[in-house]
Amino acid sequence: MSSASGLGIRRPLVRMNYWRQQANNLSQRLIEIRRHLHRYPELGYKEFETARYLAQILRQEGIEVREHVGGTGLVATIRGASSGRTIALRADMDALPIQEKTGMPYASIVSGVSHACGHDAHSAILACTAMLLQRYRRKLAGTVKCIFQPAEECPPLGGAKPMIDAGVLADPPVDAIYALHTAPNLPVGTIGIAYGPMMAASDRAKIKILGEGGHGSAPQQSVDAVLVAAHTVVALQSIVSRNIDPHSAAVLTVGQLQAGYRYNVIADTAVLDCTIRTTDVHSRQLIQDKIEQIVDGVTRAMGARYELRYTLGYPPAINDTVAVDQVIKAAEVVLGEDSVRIQEKTSLSGEDFAYFLEQVPGAFFWMGSRLEGDRKQYPAHHPAFDLNEAMLPLGVAMFCQIVEQELFREPLAGGE
Ligand code: NI
Questions:
Q1: Are 222 and 214 in contact (CB under 8 A)?
Q2: In this structure, how many other beta carbons lie within 10 angstroms of the beta carbon of residue 109?
Q3: What's the confidence (pLDDT) of residue 10?
Q4: How far does the centroid of ligand 1 lie from the alpha carbon of residue 119, in Å?
Q5: What phi and psi, each to the nearest 5 degrees, are found at residue 60?
Q6: How crowded is residue 285: how many other Cβ atoms within 10 Å of its Cβ?
Q7: Which of 236, 267, 303, 359 is the 20 to 30 Å CA partner of 123?
Q8: Taking the alpha carbons of 112, 51, 192, 314 in that order, is the dihedral positive or negative?
Q9: Average of pLDDT values for 34-44?
Q10: Any idea which of 182-196, 308-322, 338-352 has the lowest mean pLDDT?
Q11: 90 alpha carbon to ligand 1 midpoint, in Å?
Q12: How far apart are CA 209 and CA 140, in angstroms?
């Protein structure tokens, strides 16, 4: 109670958002589902039991479920009382090849496999979102597709692309798509989001330089692959510094360079292995083209030859402005006015939700999941990574609020 009430001044009651109340009622169920998935994690493309478990839960609620979409993918469809647009919500289901070291009672019982990126939470949140929306389907003008996607951690193919190829965005065609991800660096009750680029493209270039071996004392009779490789490494570093717009984030890292046999032998081959991160499609294409030009030019000038294998990973995840506005509006309603952290810097990690964003407008956002109290927060993909389960109902409320804004004929306005 504030002191104001003691003075007899009546303050307007701050009412908790309706979806947040409803989601809070599902807290136990959310924890139960999340911990079940956590205990029995499965790697990408092998989410057989995960998909079966989720399908069973959803069918018990009378929800229409389609299995084996693009492999182990699952789609739950909620059809409204009247026709309208179609909104998709997406969660990933796969775990990582990491031996869990949280020591928690719900820790993974599968040796060498764990949910160290919070995809267990994403799936639990989406399952409970589907349950809630199913109860409110009469208020829906349109359709909600809940997409449970495999293999997010498996670039370059991933799990989004196979689901798109299997038609998940068609029949009825999806008008907008949303996804959330646990954020160990943000407190529970906040979200992080960016207009435009949200996550980077992650590509790989493997360059083999073919020289001519020889005796270390007679360089004139050889083409030294070590020297050509050294020039190539230096020249490659001019791409980001001299060709990329300084306002666009990009990285080219030569992570591996292998060459040579012995101190007095001139190496005949050298192999450079590089990762390339970009945040827009223009830079992405430009770096790919420049790498080939530089490798071709340097090797030619020095009398060597080359083989280049360029592997495209996930594209950059580009958020749509209108969809970002929807997410921010939902956060302000569900979590409060100061709950939104606009991300000034694009994360240079990859996310295959980008494939969905290439097809339809949408937004990907971080959902604060930082542990509180004595427990130390470890980053995602760390063996001791864990999340704050208080974020689970907030994720459900966010998804439901976004759907209300997109598809409800009239707002719930705090209850019914
Ligand atoms: Ni992840």
A1: yes
A2: 12
A3: 56
A4: 6
A5: -60, -25
A6: 11
A7: 359
A8: positive
A9: 98
A10: 338-352
A11: 12
A12: 60
Distance of CA 220 to the CA centre of its chain: 52
Phi, psi angles (nearest 5°) of residue 142: 135, -160
Catalytic status, residue 47: no
Predicted pLDDT of residue 413: 55
Structure tokens given for 110: 């599968």
CA of 404 to the centre of ligand 1 (A): 26
List all residues 6 or more positions away from 317 whose beta carbon is below 8 Å from its beta carbon: 197, 198, 199, 351, 353, 354, 357, 364
d(CA 117, CA 382): 8
Q: Measured on CA atoms in the order 320, 323, 328, 329, is the torsion positive or negative?
A: positive
Residue from 152, 203, 224, 404 carrying the catalytic annotation: 152
CA 216 – ligand 1 centroid, Å: 49
Closest CA to 298 of 210, 215, 217, 219: 210
152 is catalytic: yes
Q: How far is the CA of 372 from the centre of ligand 1 (A)?
A: 21
Q: What is the pLDDT of residue 11?
A: 54
